[in-house]
Amino acid sequence: MKEDIEQSENRLQEEIRAPLITQTNKRVTEEQAENGCYDKKQNRCMVYLSTFVAVCGSFAFGSCAGYSSPTQSAIREELNLSIAEFSLFGSILTFGAMIGAILSGPIADYIGRKGAMRMSSAFCVAGWLAIYFAQGALSLDIGRLATGYGMGVFSYVVPVFIAEIAPRDLRGALTTINQLMICCGVSVAFIIGTMLTWRTLALTGLIPCAILLFGLFIIPESPRWLAKIGHQKEFELALRKLRGKDADISEEAAEIQDYIETLEKLPKVNLFDLFQRRYLSSLIVGVGLMVFQQFGGINGICFYTGSIFESSGFPSDVGTIIYAIIQVPITALGAVLIDRAGRKPLLLVSATGLVIGCILTGTSFYLKGHEIAVKGGPILAVTGILVYIGSFSIGMGAVPWVVMSEIYPINIKGAAGSLATLVNWFGAWACSYTFNFLMTWNSFGTFILYAAVNALSILFVIKIVPETKGRTLEQIQASINAS
């Protein structure tokens, strides 16, 4: 009897223990699946390939932005351009980008993400060829305007496409590659621009466009766009191609369909609706960050880095290469820190560095103008520019775009995002067009003016911008409305 009782107790304990072990394993399985690290059947190769193809557009973006700095002296000398004519050439890029940014949303919705990228690449190819064959200011400006239009479309459609194809556990990391590749494009243009003629450098801009156009024949369209326009069969095929033939896509497909249905039920918002009181706080934060990002001087300094070093007495080739080398790793560091340190700390550190960089560079021009510490002035100038670009790369470059994507309610994201992007490109145009005129007026005063704008951005971030790290959209909205 004693043995029977012990055996019964052992069996009872095993029966009690077994479900607990099963439930625990099931719970671990669900948690791992939610984190995207347990589904071994998913094949991520097509996601990585699609991201690579898309960010060729980001690289093309950077190539356009970085073209004018190393070529300014050569173009002005060969084509006999005045400061006003070259300033128009440099800044008309951003005017084209404004047009592209305004039209990018409707275009991407009408012809698809791949169609928008094809069209953008075609504009960039036409623009680079016009610059290569240019014999005067008009052809240069037309080419620059066309590449700017392509940039404006790329600035919207590339991050949207990546976000729509990526699994949830990879979405943040893959989306940040967009900004990193823009910096790589700028840096490569800076470096090889010191070794190639300006016409040959224009031809190198065709390379990322060619890779993108070829790659678009291989990768699938965005499943979410296909679902949005009601192409159910193509939607499932694209999602299957992205996740792998053995992956279970039923749950993700159902989530996408539910999301599309929710979007269709929300009220349509136009540009004037954004100025309602309930949206005003979010609008001020998003647009305000774009204003401070651009009017702090970044595009003037980026477009004409070579002439800044030349004016200060530092070798422009050496300074431009150092600038290019330092930009990429610091941008990568910012991408790593953004989810750890938070948005506000990065913005504050970045803005403080921008103020210091502007003051150092402005001081170098002041010393040169008054013939004080003549040998130390050029070193001070290059130090100030490197502090400036390093500070911009770690925070003020990427964080405003991240915050903008987080603070807007879902039903106004399109309209509010278009407005913020338009403001951003307008600021880029104003800064790049006026930079050479400001430097002719007073080099020291130009950088002190930029320092003052960046100092105001510190106050704006402290007083107005909410911290969005690790918070849901509802929590962010509640915080903004309360403030």
TrEMBL record:
Residues 50-469 form the Major facilitator superfamily (MFS) profile domain. SUPFAM superfamilies: MFS general substrate transporter. It comes from the Eukaryota. The chain crosses the membrane at residues 47-68, 88-108, 120-140, 146-165, 177-195, 201-219, 283-306, 318-338, 345-367, 379-403, 415-435, 447-465. GO terms for molecular function: sugar transmembrane transporter activity. The keyword Membrane applies. GO terms for biological process: zinc ion transport. The keyword Transport applies. It is found in: Membrane. It is a multi-pass membrane protein. Belongs to the major facilitator superfamily. Sugar transporter (TC 2.A.1.1) family. NCBIfam families: SP (TIGR00879). This is Sugar transporter erd6-like 7. It comes from Nicotiana attenuata (Coyote tobacco).
